[in-house]
Design goal:
Layout (H helix, E strand, L loop, with lengths): L16 E7 L3 E6 L2 H13 L1 H10 L2 H5 L3 E6 L5 E5 L1 E4 L3 H8 L12 E9 L2 E9 L11 E9 L11 H15 L4 E7 L5 H5 L2 E7 L5 E2 L2 E2 L9 E6 L2
Parallel strand pairs: 8-9
Antiparallel strand pairs: 1-2, 3-4, 5-6, 6-7, 7-8, 9-13, 10-13, 11-12
Helix pairs in contact: 1-2
Bound molecules: zinc ion.
Zinc ion (ZN) binds next to helix 1.
Amino acid sequence: MALPQEACPYCGEAELIEILEVWPPRDFQLDTCCHGVHEAAVQFLSENPRAAAQWLRAKGLEGLTGRRVRRVIDDGSGQLVLDWRLTIAPVSFSTAKNFVAPHHRHCPAPAGWRFWTGIFNGDELIGCVMVGRPVARALDPARVVEVNRLCVRTDIAPELPWNACSQLYGWAAREARKRGFQRIITYTLESESGVSLKAAGWTIEHKVKGRSWDTPSRRLPNASPGLNKNRWTPES
Ligand SMILES: [Zn+2]
């Protein structure tokens, strides 16, 4: 037996607000009894990004799409779109390399990649991490790996890659452990906050003076000359 439906305060008919359709990568349309309730629903969704995700879940969005929604966001043009929960999934070596290349034009790619992955928002690849041999010669490449490249897209709504860097650092640390490496490290410039490393539970273990990275006799290919760096590793 169907529950008695409430009357819509706008049109007086039985109130209707349902998900009509979802189009990849992130568009959706509501089916409503009238324009008034549609406007109210859109306003609610735009003002409460997290509650909106919960509401869409309750309306069966995840059953329709097989994906988990994180928030509802403005795509930058006033259109409400779905921000999916991020998922880490393998990508080919060339996909990862092409993804990070534009961000690192000034650095030649270090040799000796060990492992890499991509992170997706729905179907869209929004970030990649690549882990390889440590660039500093003093570190034993049989025991230590280095996050040499980590990039997320900056040409999309800023909400979409939210938390992607931390998740990639977290994945890299777990993967290094799984593969039997004793340590994983990465470098940031001293001027960078390292906020996503901190969020992933990494701490600064060593401060590297810029000069030692760029002496004429020992040029390290991956270093930005003359800048102080912080070396990070996960808290054990
Ligand atoms: Zn109505």
